[in-house]
Each structure stands twice: as structure tokens, then as C-alpha cells.
Amino acid sequence: MTSPFHPDLKQPRQPRETANGSQQSPPWDYPTVANNPADMEKSAAAPTQNSTSAGTGVNHNGHKVTKGIKPEGESGRRGIHPIRFLQICWSSASFASRAVNILWPVVPAAIVVRYSHPELDLLVFILNYIAMVPCANLIGFAGQELARKLPKVLGVLVETTLGSFVEIVLFMVLLTSDQYAVIRAAILGSILATLLLCLGLCFFIGGMKREEQCFSDVVSEVGSGLLLTAGLGLCVPVAFSVALSHSSQVPSQEILDHKVLMISRIASILLICAYAIYVWFQMHTHHGLYDDLFQLDEQIDADRHKDLRKPKLTFTECIFALAISIALVTLIAIGLVEQIEPVVEHYGVSESFMGLILVPIVEKAAEHLTAMDEAWDNQMNFALSHVLGATIQTALFNAPLVILVSWGLNKQMDLNFELFDMVMLILAILVVGNFLRDGKSNYLEGALCVIVYMIFAVAAFYYPNPPQLEGAETAGGSAVEGGATEKRMLMSWPAI
């Protein structure tokens, strides 16, 4: 916890007044001296949720508020209006999202080239890779519009879940093609990309406008604790396999592989239980605390008055946008995954680099853009909630979900990651945890996070493919045997 004195006024913070008139100290305590004074003046003029609808039944734009819809998310329209829908998707998005929308012509080009010239492996891969970005961005924008209509905490959770939908689709498509090594690398790569690259860019972009940015220790400490739990859960199968790979206590490698598989499945169930407890904590028992934090972020947002005046999508248009974008993402993901094996075999790209770096960047593009836009607007609690929330969801839900689905499909997918990947994960959690500890961020910390990610990317680029994993794993091959062979090669590396 930081000092209870504001660095500018040198006076104690005033306690907030509760509903019964009593005084209560705020549940958080962090300074706002680093915030730009101009931001505070603009945000003071921005209407709050209460002022837009109190006693009038209309919101800030004069639209009648529908029951169950938050005033700031009310569009004033019903149904689907195609022209208006396209205009809002373009004009109401952030600057970064509008820039990404320029890539939409690549989407039909990727689909056409995939079916007309399937022999052009590299071109099909590049086009589908680029086409994934605007489709993922549309999911993020539609999720953001939908979140405006919901209570704050629920809205953030829904937005984070939709931002991870591309990742789930890619994992399932990879699972159907038995590319287990790429899935394992992509799981950890997604965590690293969000935790180091996205968080680093948030710190850097926000720090370019302000000397420091502050955030609540409620968000950072809960997030750090869950990340450590997730890291432990993902490391146990690897540690078990490495510790017993040359032990006489295990009669054969097949028995060890089976034990690792069972540990992975049981650990996946427990990790999903941990995620369910986290959601209950955030949505039910402590939702008031998170509501206060998010409301504070809205009040210090310099552009809030502009965002409130922007036209909004209707609820039907949000669902329509999600349906279109999810269908396109699924189609493009299939085309992208089909080309991973040829690209790895013919163009010298390692599976580690493909899974740890290339796939995660595109699958979390929408989440990254949203978080960076919030950091630019000095909404650091929102930004951290998206970054840490997406990382936690990948580690505690998406990765275990893949294991359980593979179990149901009688596939041998496990959590027997590369030892190289696990070391990078633990180091990343330690680095980020150290930066979150003081409740402040600046552009230096952001730059350091990005540099660490770039070092990991270089190492992944030069990491060799195991001989049996050059290309995709076949359906008849066991992923557990592949993972065990990887460990034996790694353990015997000094002798080589």
C-alpha cells in the first residue's frame, strides 16, 4: 500500500460517504499525482452514469434508456440498420481499431487464394495471418459495445472472454489436426505475449503522456496471485516428467507417459475450479470493490465525454457482429492451421517460434488493442483487468479446456511442456510481478517488458525442432511420447 497522503496537497485522502451517511475509508489507496492535470479537468466535465439518467429516463445523448441496459450503452435504436452498423463500426472505434479496419480487404483475398491456389503455402499463410487481425478486432469491438450495456464487472468479464474466443477457436482447430506441440507452445506463447508484450506496451504508451500511472493493488495483487497459481499448475507435469525420466522407480517410459497424462487431466480440472472461484470472487462477493475501481477509472478518463457521445450499436447489432466475426475467425483459423506444417517444413520456421510468438500475437490482437487504448486514456485498472484477466483465462480455463476436450475425443494431449518454455514462463511471471508490486508504472518498465519479450522471441526463433516433430504430429502418433522424447533429448543435450 502506498502513502495515504496525496503528494500534491500533502493532506490525508477524504473518506467516501456510504449510503447511510457514515464515513468509510476507500478500499484502495494509491496516488494520482502522475495523472495529467489536463486529463483531470476534462474528466471532471464528463457526465457520469448517474448524471446521465437520474430522474429523467434518458441518457446523455437524449435516448430513452431501455430497462436492463446501462445508460452509457443505450443506442436509441432497435434492430439492425446495415449502413448505420458499418458507420459505427468504423467511426466509434479507437484510432488503433480504425487503423486495423484498413486490413479488411485482405479477408476475402485470403479466402480466395486459399481455395484457388492452395499450393502457395507461404502466401496463403501470410494472407490468413493478416486477415485474422481485423476479424479479431471486430470481435473485440462488438464485445466492447456489448460490455457498455452490462454492469461494469460483468462487462469486463464478457469483454475479456470474447477477446479470448479467437484463441479457443485456434486451439480447437489445432487439436483436430493433432498439432499438439504447437498447441503447447501457443498456450505459453499467449501468456507471454499478453503478460510481457501487451502489458509492456500499455505501460510504455501510457507513460509517454504521463510521468507515472497508478493502479489499485486490488487488481495487481489478485492477478499476481492467480498467475503464480497458474504457473505452478502448468509446471507440475513438466517437473514430474523430468524428475522421473531417468529414474529406476518407473518401470517404463510408457507408464511415465500415462502418469503425466493423468496428472495433466486432474490438474486441468482443478485449474478450471480455480478459475470458477476467481469469477465468483470478482462477480459476487467482491464486485462492489471492482465497481468502485472501474468507476474511478471512468472519472479520470480524459476522453470519456467523447466516448459517451459516440453512436452505439444496438444489442441485436452486437450479436450480429459477433456472429459474423466468429464465423470468419473460424474459417480463417482453419486456413491458417493448414499451412503451419508446410511453413515449418519448407521455410525453416521452428515450431517454438510459430507457437510461442506468431500464433499468440494474432490470436490476442483484439485484447491487446483494447488494453492499449485504455492505458492511453489513463484507465490503468481497466487495462490491467484486461491484460491480467486474459492471461488468467488462458492459464486457468483455455489451456485446461483443451486438455479436457482432447480427453473427451480420446486424444493424448497433455501439459508436458518443453522445459525451455516453462523457464520462460516462470521468469516472465517474476518480472511482471516485480513491476506490479509498487502500484505504479512508467514507460521504462514498459520498455523493459517488451525487451524481455523480444529476447524470448529470439531464443524461440533459434530453438531447434525435435526430429520427430518436424511438421505436424500425425494422428497415429502419441503427443505424450513426443513430449517425453523432447525431455530425453533435452536431458542428454550436455552429452551431445
Automatic annotation (TrEMBL):
Residues 1-75 are annotated as: Disordered. Gene3D superfamilies: NCX, central ion-binding region (1.20.1420.30). It comes from Diplocarpon rosae. It holds the Pfam family Na_Ca_ex. Signal peptide: none annotated. One of its GO terms (molecular function) is calcium:proton antiporter activity. It is found in: Endomembrane system; Vacuole membrane. This is Vacuolar calcium ion transporter. It is a multi-pass membrane protein. Residues 122-283, 320-461 form the Sodium/calcium exchanger membrane region domain. Has a role in promoting intracellular calcium ion sequestration via the exchange of calcium ions for hydrogen ions across the vacuolar membrane. Involved also in manganese ion homeostasis via its uptake into the vacuole. GO terms for biological process: intracellular calcium ion homeostasis. One of its GO terms (cellular component) is fungal-type vacuole membrane. The chain crosses the membrane at residues 122-141, 153-175, 181-206, 218-240, 260-281, 313-337, 383-407, 419-436, 443-463. The keyword Ion transport applies. Residues 7-16 have a biased composition (Basic and acidic residues). It comes from the Eukaryota. Belongs to the Ca(2+):cation antiporter (CaCA) (TC 2.A.19) family. Keywords: Antiport, Calcium, Calcium transport, Ion transport, Membrane, Transmembrane, Transmembrane helix, Transport, Vacuole. Residues 17-26, 46-59 have a biased composition (Polar residues).
